[in-house]
Structure formats: structure tokens, C-alpha cells
Amino acid sequence: MKDLKSSGTGISWLILMAWRDLRSNAGKLFLFMSSIIIGIAALVAIQSFGNNLTASIDLQSRALMGADYVIDSNHPANEEVVRIMDSLGGPDSREINFASMVVFPKRSSSKLVQVVGTEQGFPFYGELETDPPAAARDYLVNSSALVDATVMLQQNLRPGDSIKVGNISLPIEGALKAVPGRSALSSSVAPAVFIPYDKITQTGLLQRGSRLEYKYYFVAKAGQDLEVLYEAIDHRLDAEGADLDTHLDESRRLGRRYNNFGKFLNIVAFIALLLGCVGIASAVHVYIQGKLKSIAVLKCLGASRRQTFKIFLIQVAGLGAVGGFLGTLLGVGLQIAAPVLLEEYLPVEVDVSLSFPAISLGLILGVLMSIAFALIPLMRTWYVSPLSVLRVQAENESRTGKAQLAVLGLIFLFLVLLARQILGSWEYAFFFILSLVVSFSLLYWVARILMWTVRRYFPEQLGFAIRQSLLNLFRPQNQTSVLLLSVGVGAFLISTLFFSRDILLSKVALGNDENSPNIILLDVQTDQVNAVENTINENKVPVLSNVPIVTMRVDEINGRSVNEIRNDTTSNIGRWVLNHEFRVTYRDSLIPSETIISGEWIGNSEKREVIPISVAENFASDARVEVGDRVTFNVQGVRIPTEIASIREVDWGRIQLNFSVLFPKGVLEDAPKFHVVSTRTGGDESSAILQRELVSKYPNVSIIDLRQILSLLEGILEKIGLVIRFMALLSILTGIIVLIGAVRTSKYQRIRESVLLRTLGAKNSQLLRISFYEYAFLGVLGSLTGILLSLVGSFLLARFVFEEPFVPSAEPFLILLPLLTLLVIAIGMLNSRSVLNSPPLQILRSENR
Amino acid sequence: MSKILNVSKLRKTYQSGSGTLTVLDDITFSLESGETFAIVGPSGSGKTTLLGLCAGLDRPDSGTIELCGVEIDTLDEDKRALLRNRKVGFIFQDFQLLPTLTAMENVAVPLELQGVKNAQSRAVTLLEKVGLGARVHHYPSQLSGGEQQRVALARAFSNTPEILFADEPTGELDEETGQKIIELLFDLNKEAGTTLVIITHDMDLARKTQRILRLKGGKIHREEKVEVQ
């Protein structure tokens, strides 16, 4: 061996060989390429489109606030607050609001409203909706007023009529239909009257004792991180009795829908990629199967194991890079097309540009996922014995065990990292990958058990075609494991998309159904309740709820009086808790928007000395109280000692009355209170008739028409629902295309046998029947196993990721199962087509290339 | 003349179901450099297994094989591959051309593996020599069986091997074509002075070599010298 030096080939020869081998295999590798292209395209499109949508939803949440962030306070900004605001560049617009009686001279009537003095600029996002539309702009110029549309209706007012606010009288410019920043439903909302900021002082209503709110609206600087801003200044503002609200709180208030929406998009993107990976693995598996003989020849001629391995590795990596690039381009194309297709549904114009980081990510990911998922089939090249070129049957290689395990570990690691990157959480990543590993293992065992069962109980008495198809399931070179795995995993992923889409859509639908109120009546006195309910019923609309409200203030927290806490500069208890007039209700059960997160819900006080109450999460954190802490409330002079029995998570996004503080039954029944009655009306006209009747009969009652807010929310939810459907559809299509690929690759497995059978005289119909039965077995079993597995997976997904109840739909069983089975059968039978239409020798020759 | 192949007490078994199948047992023979040699025997006598072992494609259970002065059963797979590339040529019954490579590329592969610069032009010269100058850019599937075996011949000689193993080289060809291939094989072999080992059950072909080894039931049945005709 001394005169033998290692081979003189370099990387260029390996690339040359990879290319030579590739050029005549383009057709066979088309499926490999399409798996990468589609997987990457879906990822890029979904992520980019998702980002665009998140941005647009972000804008919606800004529109709900009217600005990026607001600083508010119950007193004019002191020096420190001014300093903080100056450091932020000063407010972009100011507002003062307070509750006051106003007079409408035309009707000689008065009404309690929320007077809002605003400056030029507001709202910076969204718009003031007025009738006529120009009024939104003109009232500041003409020093006039905008009056809540319902009040206009109740009072029978027209633009040009006047309104008296304190000392001044202003003409009414128009009706106020919707206002950013005033869409959140709360029991303290009174109808709004907008007047110019500079007129507020002239009203003479700013005297001491008035409950005033000062708001300073800000537009964020480009790239400003509001979370960081909040962390930096909120505690400083809090110490001065001011508060910072960002539009992020607003979107949080809309509930977890947005979070889940983002999670869903990421899961869709990840599933699309995984489907691509399944496609790669199955395509390369069959490709390498067809290459084993050539590899043995190369080794015979003196190529080393490393050289042959590298030739195919280079091929796969090269295809991965090209596929990744094309996939990224397609993804960007889809991203450009999606907003055009969905234009009327999207609230913002979406800027689309070619992003080089995105393209390089596509390239890198294309190469990485190709290599990772081709490794196991590629490893077979390493252990191909050159002996197999002779007619001697080479010994089975058992040496692949350890290496295969190492490669599987590597793939697992790659998937976990990829999942972490896309899903954004280690927990989800492990959960997802683990469920995939479990699914793979189960599917593998289902395949093994199927093969064993068919072999063990082989039905000899059946006809030729069905016997042949059953034989195909377990004889050497069978495709049972590969097809069951790819069909099963495909069905698993697609059906998971179906199920999780349903989880989200049911959540979206919950917000607005027949039982959601759209008219709220405030300040209904106890002795008016029956009469008001009768009026509502007479108008043939239902009374949806009648909630008693008792107002109270906090007197003591854990034995410390409110004044004591106020004077303690080290106390970090939120000032609003100390100052706020809480509107509290009592009942013996929770409503759907409430979930106990700690402690125990007690619905009846049963004459206890200390009343067990439930507080919302935000109250508990701002008042710095936990379960078991004591809070004394003051109800119009009467002190009521309470103990926090439970803390609730409240979905403030639900269209229903929610409360920070909730009493059990048996305590507040005799306290002075008023009621909030809700109903749901049909169209504009019936709503107007009911409102007019209620106002004329019960002038003290305030009416809030929620239809504007509801239509805004419905709009957002509709968009989210649409996007969920679109994204799920895109990914399901990806899955189906990959599945077509997986089944199509099995063509090369069966073709030789079909040709032989045909040569021996098998009729076309017999060949088709053999294919039909074989693919029907595999299709039904693979899809069914996949769907059943996804049922379990989706339940876990609903429980731990979306934190929503899981109500499985029958769709995957009724639609997906037959559809996937038919698809598998159809492609399987199409595979036999070339055998049926051409002479056997011609097929064998062309397959040899 | 020096020994190019030295086989001593070779034994090879395979696991077959529950039992052990002895394919070769106590095989000992040697070959001089430049000698032509035939291994003959009925089907299942172990001819192909013996060729696989001699060419370093497989390992014996016991015994030793010295090929071109190297004890090959001590070498790992890659070292044996290197030895094959430098010293050994092959011709197979079913040609075993790489289907995705053209005739020229198939012939050039052994040279390219050695890092030879003008591998492709040498491949063309060799193809012209076997009468396929006009078919250099054809793929195997575009060639007839005889043409494919001629490409295989050109490939076998391309790395100027010291020893050439031919496994039933005419097994898949009609008689006339087979005859032409054999003539070409012997002509090329004579020109190159290569040691030639042919596996066959065609006694006419075997008698064209200098020595015949008869196998029966995995053992050497007889070894005979062929009279020069």
C-alpha cells in the first residue's frame, strides 16, 4: 500500500459528479424541490404576511386608543409629570374631561354627560365618526360642540341647535357616532359631548371638587419600544398620581385573541415547514433507493464511502439552496399577492419589498432542512456494499443503528431549534416536537403491526388482485412504513390545522352572538327596573341582563387606611385604587368571561363577619393584595370589611359588563344601588324607537348604544377569522401537495413489479385493482391514524397553548379522511398509468436512466 | 514473474435461515502477473463469491488474500476502494454502467477518481479504441447491450489495472456479440499485459485462458492448465 496515495479528487469532482447525476434525474427530484419550495414559500409568506397583519392589528389597537400612548391624571400635571412629558417631547394633544349636567335649551331638558375638551390633532389613529362627517373637523374651528348620537336622537336635536355647558352656550356641529379611546365598555361610561379644549375654562366647571381627568396624548417616535417606555416611566408617573396607558394595553384588553392568532400563524408556518421536511425525507428516501446500485458501482471503481456520501450530500444541499431561493421568491410573491387579494379586508396599506435577510434565511433554511431530513436516507450510501454489484446478495447492514440514532438526535435538535425560532418558546417547541416524535413512533408501529397481521393472517382465499395488493404491504421493498408515515404525518398536521383553526374561530365567534347585548341602560333605579324591563319586552326585544350596581370606595387595605397609604411615599399601591369609585355588583356565580386563577369562588356570604369577595387580576396587582388579604370598603358611609377569597382573570374583551370587585350574594342587597339593564336590538330603526321610548319614559336613564363598538370589534374579528382561514388553507394545500409528492415517489418502487406482472400477462384492470387495494389500505389507515393522533395533539394544543376549551369538529373525519384516502388512491393509480400505456421494455429502459 | 494474487485457505459462510451455509471452503491458489485465468463451475459453486473476495469487495471468514502485494483482508473499506481504483479493473455480466453518466463520463470516472487531469480525452481515446467513437455522449440506455459492454471494457482498462476481474462478461449478450466482446477483451488485455480473471461457466471461453480453476460445492474440484492451441 506504500505506493498508494489517497484519491486525487477534490470538491470540484464531487460537485461535477453531483451535477452529472442530477441532470438526468430532474424529473425524479422535482418532488424533492417542490417540497422545499412550498415549505419555504409558506413559511416566508405566512411570516411576512403575518407581520403585516400584526402591524395592521397593531394599528387597530392604536385606533382604539387614538394615540400610541396616553398619560392621564385626576389633577393637572405637576412639575415632575411635566418634566417627564417634556423628556418625551411633550404631548401631541391634550384633553380634559369630567361628568356634568348639560342643558339643551331647545327641549328645556338637561342630561348628565361626559364633557370632553379636546385639542387639534386627536385622534392620531382612527377617526372621529360624526354626522355630518365634516363636523369632526369643523367643531374645533367653529368653537362648537359634538354631541353623542344617541343623546341627539333622545333629545331630538339637529346640528345648529345649541347646548349649554356650565357658563357657555355652544352651537351643535354634529352627532358623535364613534370616538377612538372611548370604545372600551365599562359601567362608568356616560354619553360624550366634545367641545374645543380652550373653551373648557370658560365653562367655569373646573372648580375644586369636580372629578376631572386630564389626558395627554402622545405619538410614539419611530422604533420606540412602548414596553420599555412603560417600564421606565410608569412607576415615576404613578408616584405623582398619574398613569401611563399604551395602545398595547388596549390590544391586551381585547383579550387573548391576538395572542392566539399570532401563535396560530406561527404554528401554521411551522407545520408548513414540517410538511416540506416530510416531503424531502420521503423524496430522498426513494431517490437514494434507486441509487444504491450506482453507489455500489462507484465503490467498486474505487470511490470511498466519504466520496459517494458527499456526492449525494452536495446534490441535496444544492437542491436545498435552489429550492430555498425559489421558495423565498414564491413566498415574497405570495406576500405581495395576499394583500392584493385581501385588499378590501385589510385596514392598512402593506409595504412589500424584497428583504435580503428573508431571502438568505430561505436559502439557509432550504439547505439545512434538506440536509437534516435527507441525512437518514443519505446514510444508506455509506453502508452500501460494493459487493451488491455482483449477483451476490450483500449482507444486511446492522451497523446503521448507532449512526442512525445520532442522526435522529441531530434532526431532533434541528427541529427543536427551528420550532423555538418560529414558535418563540422552548416549551411549545418541545411540546410540538415531542408530539411529532410520538406520532412518528406510533405510525411506525401501526405499519409494523399491519405488516405482521397481514402476513400472519394472510387471506389465501381472496382473489388475485387483492392478494397481490396485500402481499405488496409486507414483501421486501414494501412501501408500507414510508407511506404510512408520510400519509399519517401529513394527515396529522393537516388535521391539527383544522382542529386548531376551529378552536380559534369558535373564540372569535363567541364575542358576538344572540346573547350579546348591544344596548346598555345605566342608572336604572331599583323601583324602575320592572317598568323598564316591561318597556323593553313590549318592543319585542329580550332583557339580556339586569345587573345591580353599588358604588363604593376603598377605606382600608390590610388594616392601613387609604390616607395612611397615600402619605407613605414608599408604598407602591396604585393610586387609582385609593381614589377610584368602584362600581360593584353581587351574584352567586361566575360569568363566561371570568376564570378563578387563585383562591376559591364563594357565591354566598352566609352572614359572615368578613365578607369573602373576588377581585380581578388588575385590582389584585395594583392594590398589592393576595388571597386572604383584607380590604375594607366604604359604601356611602357604611364600612364593610372583606377578605379576598379569590382572584379572577377577566376577559375584558368580552362584550359584557365586567367588574374589578365582585361581592357574593347576601350582603349588598339592601345598599343604595342602581341597575344596569342590557338588551339586544335589531336594526338602526328599531333601536332608535326603543331608545326614544325609554328616554321619554325614564329621563334619568342613560343609554349606551354599543353597536358602533360592536361593529368595530366585529370588523377586527372578521378579519382575523378570514386570515385564519386563508393561512390554514394555504398550509393545508401545502400538505396535500407534499402528500401527492410522497405517494408519487412510491411510483418508482412499484413500476418494476407492475411491468413484470404485465409481461406475465396481467390485464390492465388487474394492475389497477392491485394498486387500488394497496393504496386504499394505506390511505385509510394512514389518514385515520394521523387524524386520531391529531385529535389528541389538538386537545393538548387547545389546553396548553391556546388555553381554550376544545370542541373537536367532525370535519377532519367527514371531509379529510375520505379526501386524503381518495387522494392517495388516485395518485397511486396514476402511478400505474405509464405502465398501462407503454410497452414493458420501454418503461424499464426509461426507468434505468 | 511475481505473484499478483495469492489466496490461502479461504473460507466464506453465510447465515441462511437458522443454519450456516458454507459457500467457499479451503480455497488456495495463486496467480502470476500477466496470467489469464478462468474460474468455472456450476451455478451455486461459489464462483462469484470467490471473485468478490479476491477483488476486495467482501471479507472472508478465514484465510488470507494478497492482492498486488497487499493483504487485503486487513484493510478497511476505503483502503480497499483505493486499491481497487489503482490496481483493479472490473467487467460485469450486466455491464453496471452508471445510468446517469454518458459513455465518456463512465469511462472517465476511474481516472477522475485518481485525479488524472485529461481523464475525459483519455476516455474518448479508449472509446474510439473499442469502436464507440461516435457514441461518446450517449447514455447507457441509448446503447445496445454489446455497446454497453464495450463501454464497460473501456472503463475497465481506463485506469491501466494490474489485474482485471470479469464476471460472466458475455452472460447477457447473444453469441455473436459475445464473441466480439471476448475478442476485444483479450486483445486489450494482451496489449496492456494485465492479469485477467474470468468467471464463467462457458468452457469455450475458459479455454481461451492459460489456467482453469474448477469449483464444485464451494471447494476446488480441479485446477488445470490449458494447452496452447
TrEMBL record, chain A:
- From the record, give the transmembrane residue ranges: 29-50, 264-288, 309-338, 358-383, 403-422, 428-447, 482-500, 722-743, 775-801, 813-830
Fetch the Pfam families from UniProt. FtsX, MacB_PCD
The protein here is known as Permease
Keywords recorded for this protein, A-Z: Cell membrane, Membrane, Transmembrane, Transmembrane helix
Q: Which residues form the MacB-like periplasmic core domain?
A: 30-234
| Record-annotated ABC3 transporter permease C-terminal domain positions | 266-380, 726-840
Asked whether the UniProt record includes Cell division among its keywords, one would answer no
Q: Does the keyword Ribonucleoprotein apply?
A: no
What is the species listed in this Swiss-Prot or TrEMBL entry?
Muriicola marianensis
Q: Per the annotation, which location comes first and is thus the protein's main one? A: membrane
From TrEMBL, chain B:
Q: Which InterPro entries match?
A: AAA+_ATPase, ABC_transporter-like_ATP-bd, ABC_transporter-like_CS, ABC_transpr_LolD-like, MacB-like_ATP-bd, P-loop_NTPase
Q: Which UniProt keywords apply?
A: ATP-binding, Nucleotide-binding, Transport
**What Gene Ontology molecular-function terms does this entry list?**
ATP binding
Alphabetical list of Gene3D superfamilies matching this protein: P-loop containing nucleotide triphosphate hydrolases
Enumerate the spans annotated as ABC transporter domain.
5-228
Which SUPFAM superfamilies does the annotation name?
A: P-loop containing nucleoside triphosphate hydrolases
Q: Where is the signal peptide?
A: none
Q: Output the Pfam families linked to this UniProt entry.
A: ABC_tran
* SMART domains the record matches: AAA
Q: Which domain of life is it from?
A: Bacteria
Q: What is this protein called?
A: ABC transporter ATP-binding protein
Top-level taxonomy: Bacteria, Pseudomonadati, Bacteroidota, Flavobacteriia, Flavobacteriales
